[in-house]
# Entry
Amino acid sequence: MLAASAARAAETTVVSDVLGPEGPLFIDGNLYYVGWVSNTLSKWDGKTSTVLNKTDGCGHNGLALTKERTFLLACTNDPGAILELDMTGKQLRRWDTDSNGNKFVGGINDIVVAANGGAYATVFGPYADPPIPTFVIGKILYLAPGSDKWVEVANDLNYANGVGVSPDGKTLYVSQTVSNCILKFTIEADGTLSRRANFALLNTLTKNKNDSPWLGPDSMKIDKQGNIYVAQWFGGKVLKISPEGKLLHVFEIAAGAGTTNVAFGKDETELYVTVVKDPNDSKAKGGIVKIENVK
# Structure
């Protein structure tokens, strides 16, 4: 570990018994989250969880809030889809192909909305049985503000997963799960991407917990200072990385080894972490824990 602090944070379980917990967003005091095994989007109001959407065959994964206060939801089941939902969970629109009519082969994994209202989504890759990584077909798609078509802006990614945009809107980060690497791109004025580069090789920042090809990184969020918080699937931890690529902190998560994503609570002082107890569990049983952020 390079000049970073590490600690097992005091955890509070706020939601339990989720099948495939992912996609957390904290909005107006409510926590929204998905279950990729249960095919559901739910809302936790601080006391009770309510299922807002159930779309069989979707494999709910990444979740993003648009400027119009609708959700963009990633369907990770292969071939994937992207749903637009209102905040009650009602489906408003569904995309099954990109601008060229190509199906989302490999499944849609994560989505982020940039400050200009445009959105980026990642295409993952084949997840066979047994789950051995195969074809490198990951992509990044872009939906320009006011457009109704997703356009491919990057390809040849090794299982593209979490995606985030810097606060100034100039840099896009994306997880390559199988290579244990985070890439970065320069975002051009038209939303296209250039200057692809390695941003962080996670095994140089913190020791690998095991040798699984699916170790991570998984999904990510970016705070107001531009720090990246990335969950390490099979790693049981969340890494906080500076915009310069320096490891700032390791949040060790006790609730399980399968950390998938993170959301910021009010004023970014708290983190909500979605976690699967055992990543080898086919039902991906887990929940959401709350921990204190480290500034």
About this structure: Residues 186 and 194 are 5 Å apart (CA to CA).
